UniProtKB/TrEMBL annotation:
GO terms for molecular function: kinase activity. It comes from the Bacteria. It comes from Candidatus Ghiorseimicrobium undicola. Keywords: Kinase, Transferase. SUPFAM superfamilies: Ribokinase-like. The keyword Transferase applies. GO terms for cellular component: cytosol. It holds the Pfam family PfkB. InterPro entries: Carboh/pur_kinase_PfkB_CS (IPR002173), PfkB_dom (IPR011611), Ribokinase-like (IPR029056). Residues 25-271 form the Carbohydrate kinase PfkB domain. This is Sugar kinase.
Length: 299
């Protein structure tokens, strides 16, 4: 009942009002894995270049992430540089270097092909489709994307949506892909494209969940000091998918709890740069914040 996540492992350089950090370990798969590991064994599928520091590989391994399918190739690691200003809700991308990601073809073991829980984190939808086709009868498949792929690989993304159970998007991505400004209409449109469950992340305004039988929305956990929002959405997805992956069945109650766990884990993520906070988290700290959130929600 482990999880396999496909995505990026990157070197991030980030500037926020609280400081600047260069060459942080980042990427969609890294942030997802650091969150999902609280619930399940996580197999990470990604590619890095020959410039990728050994200390980052050791760090992921130390935190229990299975790196059998992390490819190290000649060339440069995917790099992203960004800056946050004001309310820190939106990053200004300063530079993106695809490096080895431009020719990435996932390779997994026969054992990993049988993993039942699959998450396709943000990467080219054609790469995501390549991995999904290699899996044997997955039980639960989640998908994330971003505006770049929505605008440049729209056809491939729509084709992929037909094959997944869960689509996770932020509010702007949901609007861009659906053409609907209202998020409930956007969610309904996206549901019509295939996924059973639509999860729309609204940053500091929380999460909207949509399926045929019910809709619900939760606020974000109130954080006093947001240091670096990079990877918060991937961290949310890791908590959400990680919790679902160990459940025998999926009900409204379980989906609500999955959203709450995703919300709690992402709230820790934004309190530090990169993986600073999520890498040292304990279950005790997570459950303590979960109980505080329950009191805020009054249930």
């Amino acid at each position: 009942m482990s999880i396999i996540v496909l995505g990026t492992v990157a070197l991030d350089s980030v500037k926020t009002p609280h400081g600047r950090r260069n060459n942080l370990l980042g990427g969609s798969a890294a942030h997802f894995a650091m969150s999902a590991r609280f619930f399940n064994e996580v197999n990470l599928v990604a590619i890095v270049g020959e410039d990728f520091p050994r200390k980052h590989i050791d760090f992921l391994h130390k935190n229990g992430i299975i790196l059998t399918s992390l490819i190290k190739s000649g060339g440069k690691t995917f790099r992203w540089s960004g800056e946050y200003k004001g309310d820190l809700n939106t990053a200004l991308t300063l530079s993106t270097e695809l490096g080895v990601l431009s020719f990435f073809k996932p390779k997994i073991t026969d054992h990993q092909r049988k993993i039942e829980n699959v998450f396709l984190a943000n990467v080219d939808p054609e790469i995501q489709s390549h991995l999904l086709k290699s899996m044997h009868s997955p039980r639960l498949v989640g998908l994330d994307s971003m505006n770049y792929w929505i605008h440049n690989k729209r056809k491939a993304l729509f084709k992929l949506l037909k094959l997944v159970d869960i689509y996770v998007a932020n509010d702007q991505e949901a609007r861009d892909l659906s053409g609907e400004h209202n998020l409930i209409k956007a969610a309904r449109y996206l549901r019509g494209k295939g996924p059973r469950f639509i999860v729309i992340k609204k940053g500091e305004h929380g999460v909207l969940f949509y399926c045929d039988r019910f809709i619900f929305s939760y606020p974000a956990f109130p954080v006093e000091k947001v240091v670096d929002p990079t990877g918060a959405g991937d961290t949310f997805a890791g908590g959400f998918m990680g919790y679902l992956s160990v459940q025998k069945s999926i009900s409204e109650k379980i989906l609500k709890r999955a959203v709450i766990y995703g919300t709690i884990l992402s709230s820790f993520n934004v309190e530090g740069f990169g993986l600073e906070k999520t890498s040292v988290l304990t279950k005790k700290a997570v459950n303590s914040r979960l109980n505080k959130f329950k009191k805020i929600l009054a249930f």
